[in-house]
Amino acid sequence: MTTETSPPAAKRVPSERIHHGDTVVDEYAWLAAKDDPETIAYLTAENAYTEARTAHLAALRTELFEETRRRTQETDLSVPTRKDGYWYYTRTVEGQQYGVHCRRAVRDGETEPPVSADGAPLDGEEVLLDGNLLAEGHDFFSLGAFDVSPDGRWLAYSTDFSGDERFTLRVKDLSTGELLPDEVPDTFYGTAWSSDASVLFYVTVDEAWRPNRVWRHTIGSAAADDVVVHQEDDERFWVGVELTRSEKFILIDIHSKITSEVLVIPAGNPTGAPAVIAPRRQGVEYAVEHHGHRFLILHNDEAEDFALAYTSADAPGDWVPLIPHTPGTRLEAVDAFADHLVVSLRTDGLTGLRVLPIGGGDAYDIDFPEPLYSVGLDANPEYRTGQIRLRYASLVTPDSIYDYDLVTRQMVLRKRKPVLPGPDGRPYDPDDYEQHRDWALADDGTRVPISLVFRKGTPQDGSAPCEIYGYGSYEASMDPWFSVARLSLLDRGVIFAVAHIRGGGELGRRWYDQGKLLAKKNTFTDFVACARHLVKAGWTASDRLVARGASAGGLLMGAVANLAPDAFAGIVAQVPFVDALTSILDPSLPLTVTEWEEWGNPLDDPEVYAYMKSYTPYENVRAVDYPAILAVTSLNDTRVLYHEPAKWVARLRATAPQGDYLLKTEMGAGHGGPSGRYDSWREEAFINAWILDRLGRA
Questions:
Q1: How confident is residue 1, by pLDDT bands cut at 50, 70 and 90?
Q2: Tally of structural domains, the chain
Q3: Which residues are catalytic?
């Protein structure tokens, strides 16, 4: 029986595996049996234990949830985006979990996006899809596709009601509001329409849940009649499909972690055979954008931080240089408009946008005022336009939508996410907070950036509590972002820090390469160096520092718990990849083979096996004094399976029983946790209450 002082007892059933002469015993492998009633009973008991152990935080959880709710304008409307004769937008309604997707016809002479008072529906709006109606009767709901056909007649959309990211695709007739008989189960993300909207392309997965097939569906026909356009048999690669902004070509993107290939089909001839832009070459990545008579090619062929070239759209061949490679300036994407190109890039750890006028004029970068920020293009569906829409945020500036005139270079703020007064009744003021960039020194002498935000007046003498967040994998960058829920921590005197560690992409491709494969441990030692630096620099103290990370960042959390348990007062690991070696050894699991170019292949390479075994958290649990650990997972997660954190917590308890370890499993969600916005706020309130408790601020 579980009580507040006695966690559930996980039975130990020794299970052996042998690789490269190494025998490993896994006592908790039985937890991988998702359909076993004993597994569900164990996870349920863990949830009950976690609830009992955190019962004293119930009032604080409610308080934090209400603070987020109070600061959020619940009934709101996104800035409408123009596409042909319509403005498209999404509304949220107070008390409802999900958005309402709408459009309204553009009126004569209307050039500015329409607005409404307090998020009310626009006059003359047409509701395309109401997520709240779709979600009725389901604990989880997620949209995979939402794709209006070029002629504006059809809406292709897909739904997931379990969190496993397997969607049912449907088509809605927007002229009548009726659903067509067309229905395709078990699809993945990604759709693309033909020019005349008679054909819809979509993606499905294989038994390992790898997106491997692109299909062609003729509107009005049965799914059984659909045709496979491309099947990718190399298990390292996955596929995607999209329509170019020009609406001239269907792109089939085929990608591994380090190699890519793109196929094209004229959108006006959807039954035509796909043509290859450039055959795949190991280690060469490229992405394609259509622009008039040419295809733009963003690539890393002899260009570590990528270069931009182009080739003929009629007969793709040689690549003609357009923007040469500049070490330290990572080119991340190119967006083509009729008279301008916009390149998304990053340099010195910050994102940026570069404009290239067509037919004359020098390229220029758009300037932004803050020392730390994140900027990128927002929805820009129209090809022939002299204006782009971009999104901007910082650690203190709420999410902001701007329209930027590519000719006059004037930028107009269309909307800044409202932040309503908090518990003290005062309006939100960014000037009440400070953001800083600091640098830690890694073990090998590398300087590692840290972003910090805190409320003005927070002491900087080591007495302030601090939360440090990290990820450090897949070249994903943790660029500054604004969080309403975070304000509740900052206003309680907590410093929030982001460690921009190697394995991420903040400082270019080399930063990523130095934190993967046989250099992966740099990710972990960088994070520990950042934590130690925050203490040494007087930002906080080790007994007032909580670490947090999710997914591959959860692997980071487990690794640093083993590496430097004394450095933290607590650790939050969300959907954590803590049994990495076991998963990467099993090619039948979702995504495993595609991950070998990120982590290495321990099945075939003894060196990779030994290296991964030396850092995988589950393999390296020791009888030491661990900080308090909160592990959060989801039963239907297909990216990091629930049993990884379940096994990890069980082994922690068995090996270091004096520690405080909690496991919380969402029994009806996926990798992203709860789907509804209120449920997400409650989950964040639960985690933040636990953090505040560990920091002595509960």
A1: very low
A2: 3
A3: 551, 637, 671
